[in-house]
Amino acid sequence: MSSSDHPVTGLGPANRPLPPIKSVKAILFDVDGTLADSDPLHYIAFRDMLVELEYNNGIPISEEFFSAFISGKHNSEIGVLLFPDWDQQRRDRWLDDKEAYFRRLAAKELRAVAGLKRLADWIVEKGFRRAAVTNAPRPNAEQMIAAVGLTDFFEHLVIGSECERAKPFPDPYLKALEHFGVSAENAFAFEDSPAGLSAAVAAGLPVVGITTGNPGPALLAAGAAFLIEGYNDPALWSKLEK
């Protein structure tokens, strides 16, 4: 395989610390698991639909399987992993149905990560540019952003499937930086999955890892500067209020 067949990793230093706040011009957010703890709903949707399909002889997938092989990955990658013998059209139809099921669950049960409004208000007060950068399909991303009350907060939304390459490649984050005309040295990101972290780190961004759905050691191994449990976490505000 050529190097273009693999995610670009190592373009930005792993575990790079956040830049001084006085030099920050933009803050970028993943959506699933970062704005709202949506991974449990994705897990339910995948679990239920795979059982209906009698995947794995009808034995429900575990949360560990979901975290290791599904969370944070683009649907095109997930489809090949789950259904290597299916044609792409059949994979796409099944995944579209899964996303519709997720949206029905999210409409009733989605909740913002604690402290999100506090952080959003602080970012607006500072005048930083802000974008959402996600592998979620556009209807999912727009629904989740609306559900947590941030439709008017985000100035730009980057969808992985609308880029040349989705996460874990850096393209979505590079596209957001280019949109604002901002260097990675003057920005940072929030991510909750190893795949998303790999993308942001590869784009040269420092990244705050949020442990809503994935284990902290995996996020640190993927390049997180430090970890938080939510946006009220003192570890975050000790950095922001320096």
From TrEMBL:
The keyword Heme does not apply. It comes from the Eukaryota. Keywords: Carbohydrate metabolism, Magnesium, Metal-binding. One of its GO terms (molecular function) is catalytic activity. Pfam families: HAD_2. Its cofactor is Mg(2+). Gene3D superfamilies: HAD superfamily/HAD-like, Putative phosphatase, domain 2. InterPro entries: Beta-PGM-like, HAD-like_sf, HAD-SF_hydro_IA, HAD_2, HAD_sf, PGP-like_dom2. Signal peptide: none annotated. This is Uncharacterized protein. It comes from Physcomitrium patens.
